[in-house]
Amino acid sequence: MDLANQNSPLIYTPDQLQTTTDWLLNGNDGKRGQAQQWLKNRGITPELIQHYRLGLVTHHGRAGIVIPIPADDQDTRYYRKFRIEPWSYRPTWSQKGLPAMVYFTHKPKAAKQTYLCEGEWDAILLGWAMRDDTKIAISTFTCGCNVIPPTEQLQRLPGPVTIFYDLDPPGQKGAEKLALQLGHRAKIAQVPFNQTPIPKGWDISDALNADCSLSQIKAAARQATRPNHKTHDTRLNYEQCLEKIDEILQIEDTARQLWELNRLAKRAELSTAQLRKIHQTRLECARPFAPMDVVDFLARAPESREWIIAGKIPKASTIALIADGGTGKSRLSYDLAYAVASGQSWNGFRTTQGKVLIIQTDEPDVDFSDSLRDANYEQFQPGMVQVETEWQFSQLPQLTRWIEQEQPTLVIIDSFTAANRASELAEKDTNYGACIYDLRNIANTYGCTFLILHHTNKLGESRGTTAIPDNVSEVWYLRHPKPEDNLPEDQRIWSINKSRSRCSGKFVISYDPDDCVIVYHGDFKCTPQGQGGLEGRLLDHFQHAPGIAFEIAELALQFSCSESHMRRLVKRLWRQGHITEGIREVDANNGRGGKSRKKIFTYPESDDQVTETQARQGLVSDDPKSTSSDQVTTTTIYHGSLSSDHPIAQTRDSNGRELAVQGEQVPKSHSEQGSVSLDHHHQRTGVSPPAPDLKEGDWVELLTGYFTGRQVQVVGFPRKKPGWVEVKGKAWLITKEYERQDVRLIRRATP
């Protein structure tokens, strides 16, 4: 009878039990014979089989002896416990749906004490042997010697409890554990024996089958002793246990750390996972709940986001780069790391130089070294790029100390799974990704960014628990192009799906095998009419005029969009670190005099300026010492008689036809930045520097009037106005005249 397969009940009725018993007693197949012979060898006769309702079933194709455990006091329902083919070379137990509980094989109504055996077969034999005793109950647990049932089950045991567990280390340990739980009710007895030396694992069944009498068993019960409470004294309390965990987690030897943690778990009678959970909960609860006033919070917070690679890698962040094997995620990470270590721009995106740590635990050293040589990592000075090939997340304290000492800007972990291989948790377990919170705390404390490489599953999503992408600040995906993408096979689609720095998007990159670099091709499927196209043209406009300040109004007019839309695009470029924000002071156009302020946005003239301007906001000090030509600040005050709108050339004639666009500016060369100090002197002292000897074709900056700050080209010298200069913007259709003291030489005419 197959009552234990797919649709079989977890609880038997008396009729179902009788069917299994009939098969065990009267069946005519080989399985019945094997089961009866095995039970006979243990001293269990057909009479005991009928009394305790033992039965025979097939369990997933294998024969199993059923031990029914009463599920109620009326004997109307029974849990089932199977001993699968104990006569074979691979016997096993099966007890699905059976709770940890007490199983009585003899329980007289007037019972005053209990003999507790280690297993069901022992309890069946002893219960049958003492079936005429009216004072002693015989029982066992359904959960083995190492597990103790709940308190309400222990309360079912009548009177004092004498424990007859097997004579082996697990039995001795389980007896002591149970006795400590029962307290003064429990004593531990030694199973009587009549052989020397005592066979290992000697139990009550062995004693009864070796003709030990009931009087010997009762004598052993009278000689039972209370447990040695020395074991109880060595158990740690809550505070001691947590202190010990702190000490263990500081051990650098991972194997030793795991060894000590397992020893502590045994002393605390907990699992190592429970110890880690208690420790983590303690750390979280130890943080005080102290809300901060929003003004104080904003005062201590950075005024703007800082970037390692503008618009791609924010500072003090955690990034997950998720891709299938062979997609090129390692190459991309090495290319980004090279830009950071060298300080060179990455495909036109400005980069903050800093130290790099690459933790490579996913590929062999020979492959790793080949990749670094191909990327020209041999050129770096010692200390700029360091590598580690054996680190694991269990060594997080060592990594923290190293970061505190070396202060790297970027840390790459390739890959998350390989570095977390010592974890006792499954990859699908939510707590598997909890270590990313530790990386986040390190990033916030020391200002470094973690780039964590991870693999995808068959669906192209993050493999394992969703806690991995959920716990990081930025999520990148890298994939091969699909046929409908209409891209070459050697290109990749780089998607930033989640970005707390607000830089999400899809981009196209490829690997140049000749130069061994990643080539950035821009936005994926972006049309010039879309926001991505306008944003790209806007950034290009800024990049072609470094050092030139622009207002929202003039940019909106030039690109034919609303000021609100232009403000969003400019703010996005500013958040990504491409441009800087400042304030220009102009004469107020309200009839009362005074000054008004307008926000201006500038593409920095050097990477040094980017580094400083990303971290600060505010006005330039009026202290002349702070205005040297090599010092850069985010905000510069421009003095002049500017109207409320930034100057633009007339763009339409009387018939409404397009005439001109805003004048384009010519960037200053770095070799001519020394002349800036003359302009600072003129702005702050009001004394004009000596007028330079200008020539046609020279580029100058206007120092006064409506077009203050504009860079224009000298086109002539008015004969009727000695000392005056005629100038014209690059796209202007008209010229204007200025006194020589109101212009400053920027660059000489090209010969």
From TrEMBL:
Region (Disordered): 585-693
Pfam families reported for this sequence: AAA_25
Ranges of biased composition (kind: Polar residues): 626-644
SUPFAM superfamilies for the chain: DNA primase core (SSF56731), P-loop containing nucleoside triphosphate hydrolases (SSF52540)
Signal peptide: none
InterPro entries according to UniProt: P-loop_NTPase (IPR027417)
Gene3D superfamilies assigned to the protein according to its UniProt record, in alphabetical order: 3.40.1360.10, P-loop containing nucleotide triphosphate hydrolases
Protein name: Uncharacterized protein
Organism: Acaryochloris marina (strain MBIC 11017)
